[in-house]
Fold each of these.
Amino acid sequence: MSHLVIAPVLLPLMAAIVLLLLRHLDLRLRRLISVGALLAELVLALTLLVTVSDGEIRVYALGDWPAPYGIVLMADRLSAWLLVTTALLAFFALLHALRGIDATGRHFHVLYQLQLFGLAGAFLTGDLFNLFVFFEVLLLASYGLLLHGGGALRTRAGLHYVVLNLVGSTLFLFAVGALYGVLGTLNMADLARAVAATPADNVGVVRAAGLLLFGVFALKAALLPLHLWLPAAYAHTSAPVAALFAIMTKVGAYSILRIDTLIFGNAAGPLAGLLDPWLLPIGLATLAVGTLGAVAARGLGQQIAYLVVASAGTLVSAFGLANPEGVAAGLYYLPHTTFAAAAAFLLTAAIARRRGELADRLDPGPTLPEKRLVGGLFFVVAVALAGLPPLAGFLGKFLLLRATLGLQALPWVYAVVLGTGLLALIALARSGSLVFYRTQSVTRAAASAPVTVAAELAPVTGLLLLVIGLSLAAGPLYEYTQATATQLMQPDRYIQTVLGGGGR
Amino acid sequence: MEALLALVIGVLTACGVYLALRGRTFPVVLGLTFLSYAVNLFLFAMGRLKIGAPPVIAQGAAGYADPLPQALVLTAIVISFGMTAFVIMLSLKARAELGNDHVDGRESS
């Protein structure tokens, strides 16, 4: 039994504890610890990715108690893929935060590491109740991060976010309780086995619990009609936090994919495909509404937040096609949209700082300092966000459209995906021209902080290089996501690996 | 006993949902608390109701109560307790920064 599976969960927790103990230390040293821990996490995630890419599912039985009695962590291609995405994203968002935002409140680095702890745990756990616990960990950390720095608007958005997520957690517990009450287990692989053998008179309860779970994950993934919390929360928080939160909706999408393929997968007997009739329509509707929101947005941050909603819609639509090609396309699209949204949030902060009082409002303002560099970056970010060629967003959408060939839903998917692509392009083009071209040559907005332009824009550039890398390495990466999708479509192998003494 | 417990859970949930939908932060916090009470009872009942049965191995025991839901409830209680404390602090902060205790930060006319 290799300890590699639990290492990415333990490392951020240890880093958070160390940072909390050393809170009186010089800020520079704490930054060093935080970045060092994150780099180590990235190495661990990459090692795990290489390890699991042989197709075996790694199971780690905590305390060596065999499943289903003990609690297990499991690492497969999907978990490793998301872990690597998270670590890369978190690294660049942290680089941005190091330029001063981490000093505007207390315990930024502690909360940041705890957030990574929750994320890594949620991706690696093989137990439904532990998924709940890790959700709580990442949510609690996210409450702290969201409110970091303070301010009335931020507090109001934070209050809505916290209350909504508390209600979501309660519903999660109701669903978990109902599943345990009927099936007598919470281990996901064991649940998959038990769901397939549900007695006929309990099918209704399990179906209700499954759909309740879906509702909770839809809230986290900001799917229609549970998306209304996201734009305000993301638009009003600080830039690195918003960038890190680009992965938060993907946790919801990940959980949906996990229960859809493992617990209610094709081997689930009377409950097979429980979520399938819901995913595609809800995904497409979310995509449409998110894009319309982006068109109507009055601030750049709000616009990008709506595009995050739209990207969650795209992902869930891809998963909702319920064929391996669709899932593979969605998984290929996932890191791209995460990095692109994060880069956009970070760039918005840079633009807002240059515009002084106007901040990110979409009104004509002063000519920006360094307008060529910032404008050029905005152009690349907009191309990535709208999913235009030659970047990975285009490839992801193309793969999604190709996966739809031969399905009945083809006209709907084509109409919505292509239509929203055009609308997103129009929205971003309008913002770009408002911010960069229709400027009034009044006095320049005074640069508020003495920062070097290179340090300010390095994280954005890094994220954009990742996006370009995703496009250049599309072949091998798509092969990986295809293998992931094939693996996900065989829940029997999970059940065998977890329950058949695979952790020994 | 089952009917009584089911009724209690139902009433707590209904009160919780009603209060959570109110416009001021105090009822909302109270509603969230009621909801968490309801879900704790619900989780507890998922191990089936038994009186006087030991949860772990005891000599000469005729039957056992399921210990797992009790462990789950403990976890859930701790988490909801911490969350309630957090949301109360946040409400106080919102009251101070927004000037009133409406969840949207403005008095409805």
Amino acid sequence: MSLIHIDGLSKHFKVLNRREGLGGAFRDLFSRDYSTVKAVDGISFDIEPGEIVGYIGPNGAGKSTTIKMMTGILKPTDGTILVNGKAPYDNRIHQAMVMGVVFGQRTQLWWDLPVIESFKILKEIYKVDQKTFDEHMALFNELVDLSALYSRQVRTLSLGQRMLCDITASFLHNPPVVFLDEPTIGLDVSIKAKIRSVIEELNRTRDTTIILTTHDLGDVEALCRRIIIIDEGKILYDGGIDKVTELFGAYRTLKVQIEDFSEATLEAARDSLDHRFGPDQGITVACREEFWTNITIDQARTPLSEVLNHVLASFPVNDVRIVEISMENVVRRIYDGALQ
Amino acid sequence: MRPYLAVARGSTLVSMVYRFGFLAAVLGNVVYLAVAFYLWKAVYGDADTIRGLTFDQTYLYVALGSTLFIVLKTYIDWSLSHEIREGIVAIYLIKPIDFQLYMLASSVGFFLLSVVTVTVPTVLLITLVFGVSLPVSPALALFPLSLLLAFIINFCFDYGVGLSGFYTESIWGISTVKDTLVLVLSGALIPIQFFPDMIRDTLIWLPFQAVYYTPLSLITLPEEGWEHVVRLGVQAGWAVILLAAGRVFYHQAVKVLRIAGG
């Protein structure tokens, strides 16, 4: 049987449509005009024990709402959800024992206390016996050198150190499933790599099922064999990572700042690239923020270095940046039929 | 029970981190004790007793009342409503714990620690500097129990106000009303004997006086006997009723989050 079973799950919120200005605010006191937002709109999937699943999508796609339903914080409007065979919202306290949760933006550790005190409190809360506790702490110590942080107050930890503590803490009671909500948000590259290796190691040694939500496609590439992409409350893609990696792995965006930027410059860049590489070579030119010309390149068809050389030779360029394709871009490309 | 003991232990450790907070509270209280001393001296003038209370009894009552105010304050109303507004409350909802007991346990540390760090210097000051004697009587033996019940009742007030954070963005108004109601109706500012008879007889049955008047009278009115037992019974009754009410309120309030979203 699957560890998580979700069928036709929906969550609708009623939100107040606020009117503008002082007069509008005053009218809002008396007549209220609500509209329904379908944060999650009829999704279904099954997750098997031991999987690491990337649950991704742009901001406001419904990721957090789904996580909150799986953890029993929110009650679904409609549909079935079973975690380890039970509905999370009806058995909150019992279900809490079988799951670990990390919200990247918040900590479950005691802010004012040394790290080890939080682990001791969690040990009692999750009724972990001393022997298991010692074993787990030894493992965490091996993975992240936790003992070096034992006596440090949580609030004096760096964001990365705190996140490592939070992640290991969520594994303390050896739950069959752990939800990691944006575990690498705001972290630098080296600590991200560390966190990924810790997650991978814990999944491997404990066979823990991990649901990972993230904005960072690098997390997904490094950890997940399966991803579920959600947008506007609906599942856009559910399947192996290979096809998706192919898609976003090949794309890079070259951002250039051309001197005396105007609409005409954008046009000129487009024409010049078309002329040099020919049409349909996977190059698109757009302007998303002032002064920056974004050139998205499909590296499978045109090498980025050639495009860069051409642009530098043809235009007076002040600044250059190369960025990986964003979550929003991946979603847009899937809508455009990229996975068909 | 063990999880909550661990939480209580943790909250005691947190309180020790903020030791300068205690120092500030004690110093502030010293100023208040001095002001109250001269204020009530002036009120008494040449009179030996007012409403059957001697100056020593009244002053002891008022001084210990302001000390109790520091000791009993949980700040749960502010921290809880803040956690609800910021969505931090989700952290508790994913844990296998009873929310009310968890909150009670996490306020008990400050209470236990401040009983020692605030009360001891205050009692020394009252007896040694202001020369007011502390009557020792059998009733004093009931004081720890009564103080614990007072703490639970006051916690319930703060917890209830904190939970209203599920319904409103700002609890400032509600919290201020609660503080004022408790301070005046509990006899924390003025002994209940000074109220008109009719009001006093009503107040005796309300939960407010159980926070200050019931424990304080064990010290300042040693000559009373069965009245103490009745008040203690009323106090225990309110503790049970308010804890139960808090549970009902929580289950209603948390639905706002669980259905409407956080």
